[in-house]
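FAQ
Q: What does a multi-component entry look like?
A: The components come first, one per line:
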Amino acid sequence: MLSKKLYDLAKRRGIFWGSFEIYGGFSGFYDYGPIGALLKDNIISVWKDYYVNREGLALIDTPNISPEDVFRASGHLKEFTDYISYCKTCKTAFRVDELLKEKVPDFVIKSNEDIITGIEKFNIKCTVCGGELTKPEKFNLMFETKVGPGNFKPGYLRPETAQGIFVNFNNIYRYFREELPFGVAQIGKGFRNEIAPRQGLIRQREFNMAEVELFFDPKNKRWKNFENIKDLKVRIISKNEQDLIESLKEGVENKIISSEAIAYFIGLTHLFLIEIGIPANKIRFRQHTDAELAHYAIDCWDCEIESSYGWVECVGIADRGTYDLTQHELESGEDLKVTIRYESPITKNIKKYKPIEKVLGPIFKDKAKLIAKEIENHKVTEEKDLKVQVNGEEIVVPKEAYTIIEKIEKISSEKIVPNVIEPSYGIDRILYSLLENSYYEREESEFHVLRLVPKIAPINVSVFPLMPKDGLDIEAQKIHNMLVNNHFKAYYDDSGSIGKRYARADEIGIPFNITIDYQTLSDQTVTLRERDSTKQVRLNISDILVNLRKLIDGTLKIEVL
Amino acid sequence: MLSKKLYDLAKRRGIFWGSFEIYGGFSGFYDYGPIGALLKDNIISVWKDYYVNREGLALIDTPNISPEDVFRASGHLKEFTDYISYCKTCKTAFRVDELLKEKVPDFVIKSNEDIITGIEKFNIKCTVCGGELTKPEKFNLMFETKVGPGNFKPGYLRPETAQGIFVNFNNIYRYFREELPFGVAQIGKGFRNEIAPRQGLIRQREFNMAEVELFFDPKNKRWKNFENIKDLKVRIISKNEQDLIESLKEGVENKIISSEAIAYFIGLTHLFLIEIGIPANKIRFRQHTDAELAHYAIDCWDCEIESSYGWVECVGIADRGTYDLTQHELESGEDLKVTIRYESPITKNIKKYKPIEKVLGPIFKDKAKLIAKEIENHKVTEEKDLKVQVNGEEIVVPKEAYTIIEKIEKISSEKIVPNVIEPSYGIDRILYSLLENSYYEREESEFHVLRLVPKIAPINVSVFPLMPKDGLDIEAQKIHNMLVNNHFKAYYDDSGSIGKRYARADEIGIPFNITIDYQTLSDQTVTLRERDSTKQVRLNISDILVNLRKLIDGTLKIEVL
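Then the predicted structure of the entire assembly, as C-alpha cells:
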C-alpha cells in the first residue's frame, strides 16, 4: 500500500513519525522531522505569499488557550461533539458514527437519532472483546485546562484559529481604516480531542491550520482580483451533482457558486495547490448539500485532494453569513457592526409616535413632559399597549394620548454586521497529499523519489565530492558554504558511491545535485544533475548561485543549460 | 514611561495587544496584530537562517500536548513550581517570592525555606484587602488536560520545546548518520500557568520560543565554526563579577567560559541580536552563580537585553551535562547512548572470574557447566559472596571454586550518554526589547519612529500616489502590484497629506517610501525616501526592484543613490 510505503520512508528519512515513541507513542500526535519541518515551512511560506503578501490580508497570531466565553459564543461548547460508546467489559471507547459506518456500510446516517439508535438496532458489539456497548452519549472534543490558580478560569485549546480573528474584529477593522471588504489570516495549531484517531497524519489531535476570514458587506460579496482569474476552469461537484462549469465566471453567472468572492477563493485555492505541486487531476471542489450545510451558512465548498485515503477534504471555503460576529456581539455585548455609507442617500418612510399633550397633561400632571419625550423616542411596535419607562417606573399610555404619524427621512448610511467568508486550510493534510502525489519508484532501480517542485523541496541542493579526499572534499565544502551563506538550503554528503548519494537525495526530494570531481580542480566546473530527468550539465562554479536561483524559481529549465 | 508609550503605539498600530479584550481580557495572553506577526516572522526567519541553514541544525516540530512520562523524566512534574499563598478573605492568589521581593526589597531569598517562612516573618498581608494569607504551598505551573475519553491519559502543555527534542534523540541521531556533535532546533509555543502575570509581553502564560539542543561527546565540546568568531568581544558578567574578556577565545583559555561550544553560541547569540537590530551596548551575558546553577548543570549564561524593565533574560545558554538523556533513559528504559570510536584502540586492565571446574563438578554435578559459564560472564564486584543465576535459581559459589585473573584488553570504542548544550531563545522578549530599542521621537515633530533594520521591518516599502487622482493612483497601484508580485511586503496608502503618510509609515518602521507624483507620468521616475535620514532620491521605475532588494539586504546605502 502506498500509505504504508510512505510512512516507512517518512520515518526512515526524517519526514514525520508518531510522537513520543520512546514512551510507547501517543495516539493522534505526530512529529515533523528535519525534512518534514522544512517542507511544512515551505508550504506555509508560499501560502503567506499568496494570502498575506499578494492579497494584502492582515496576518495575526492569537493564543492557543482561549477563555470559555469565546466558545460559548461560537457554539463549540455545546456543539463540538461526537457520539461515544464504551465497551461495558473492556472499557474501550468508540466513536459511534465511525463504528456504524464500519459495521453497516450500507446504512446512511441522516441524523443524530440514527447514531444514537444504530448501536442497538444493528446489535453492534465491542470490536476488541465482543462485549456490550453503552448507550451513545455526547463527548465534547475540546481539550480543557485550568488557567491561573485558586478560583481558576476554565480555558480551552482552540479547535480552530478562526475565533481568535472574530474576537479581534474591531481592532483589525480599525487597522484597515474602517473599510470593507478586508481579510485576516492566521496560521497555527488547532486541537481536537478525537475519540479514537486512526488515520495517521490526516486526523490528528493537534494539527496545523492556515485560516482566512474575509469580511464583506452582505450586499457586495466581490473581491478585487476576481477579474484576473475569472476564466479559470476548476473541477466541481455541485450540490445537484450535474453541473459542469467552463470557468469560475460561468459558475457565478449560473448561480452554482453563490458569489464572486467564493468563486475567487476557490480559484486561488486551486492555483495555490497546483503551485506547490498537487496535480490538477487530483483536485476537486465539492459543494455541501443543503443537509450538510450548517444552519447559518449560505454556501460551502470542500476542496478535496485524492490520495490512498480517497478524496480527502483539505480546504473548506464557506460563506458563513453574519453568524460569527452576531454570536460574539450577543455573548460579549460589544458592538461589532460597521457603518456602510450609501453612494447617494436613500429616502425611507418612517413611522413615529406623536404625543398629544393636552391629553397627557391632565392624566400625568408633572410627569407629562417626561412621558411625552419618551413617547416620541419610542420605536413603533406591533404591540397593543404603549409602555414607557420614566424614572424606572413603567407607565402604560392610553391610546387617546398619542397618534402615529408617517415621515419621510433621508438616510445616508446604515449599521450592519459584516458577512464572513472563510477559506480554511488543513496544512498537514495538504502536506500528506503532496507527499503521496510526489512519490514514485524509478523503473530501473529499487529507489524511491519524491518529485517535489523545486520551490517546495525541503533542501534545494546537495553537494557531493566525488571522493572525500585529494582536496575534492575541501572544494565541495567551500561550495557548500557559499550556498548556505547565500540562503540556499544545501546538504553535504560524502559517504558511499555517487549513485547511492543521488538515490538518498532523490528520496527526500532534493531537486538538484552538485558533484565536485577531479576536473573541478583544473577548470573550476562542477556537474549539476536534475532529479527527475537525471540530466547532468557542467557548470562554472561562478555561475552556480545565479543559475540555481533561476532553476528553483522556475525561470530557467535544466534543458536549456 | 517608555513601556506605556510603546504599548499604546502597539495597540493603535496593530503590533500587539492584550488578548480577548471583548470578553474583558485574559491575563497573561497577548495577540500579535498584523504588524507584530510579520515582525515575529522576520525575527524567526533570521534565526532559522542562522541556526538551521548556516549551522546545519535539524529543525523539528513536535506537539504542544505531551504525555506525563515526559515530564516525570524531565523533573517538571515535581519541580516546575512556584510558591503560592491565597488571601483568606478575598481569595486573591499571590506568587510568594514576588510578593516578598516587592514588600521586603532588602530581603535576599536564598532558599525555599526563606519563601515559606517569609510571609509570617515579615507579617505580610493581602495587597488587595489587607486580609491574612494562607501558608505558602507549591503550585505546579504546567497546564494539565485530558487526552482521549474514558480512562483518559493526563496530558500537559509543554513548558519548553526542549523535551520534544530529547525524546527524539535516537531518530535524529540516525538522521545525522550517527556522528557527534549535532544539533536540533525547534520553534514553537511554550506554556506556563503563571500565578499572577504582570509584566506584559515579558511574562506570558503562552509564549514563543526557539530552542536548540546540541549533543556532544563530553570529552570534546567544540563546534566546527568556532574559528570564525573566536576573536569576537562580548560583554560578560562572570560568576566572580570581576572578569573582562577581550575575546571569546580568551574567555575559554582563562576558563571563564567552560567550553568552546558554549563560547561559540554566546558569540552567535551576540551576532544574531545585533543583526536584527539590538544595539551592542544593550546586550550582556551574565553567568549563573554556583547557587543559581541547576544541580546537574555545568555552566549557564543568560543573555540579557536592557529595556525599561531593566536587564531582562532573553536567551539562556546552558551546558546541561548528561542530565536530560540520562533521565529519559531511566524513565523510558530505552538506550539513548552513542558509541564513541577511539582514534586508536586503548588497552585496559580487566579483572575476570575464572571458574575452577574440578571443584565445581563434584559440588554441582550436571549444573556445573552452566554455573562455570555464568561465573566467567559475571562482573567482578567488591561483594564477598559470588552469586550466579542458573535457570532462575540463585546459587552461591564457594570461594574455592573460582579465582580472579587479570587480563589486558584492547578497547576501540565505548558507549556514552551525550552531553547537551542548550541555547534557548525567548522570542517575545527579544521582540519587545527590539521595539523599545527601536523607538524614538523625531525632534521636529510629534510623531514616533520605529528604527527597525530593513531586513526585520514588517513592511519593506510603502507606495503613495501624491494625490489619489489624475492617474497617479493607477500608476501607484501598478508599482504596488509589481512589488508584491516580486515578494516584497508593500503597503499602499493614498489618504491624507504626504507628510502624514510618511509619519504613519515611520510609526510601524517601514524603511522605504515610494511616492508617485506628476513627474512620474512624464519621465517614469519616482521619489524614494529613507525613513531614518529622511533622504529622498529620484529613481527610475525600472530600477526599483533591484535597488530595493539591495537596500533591504544592506548591500546598497541610500547615500550612494
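Q: Is there any commentary attached?
A: Sometimes. For this entry: Chain B touches chain A through 87 residues (CB under 8 Å).
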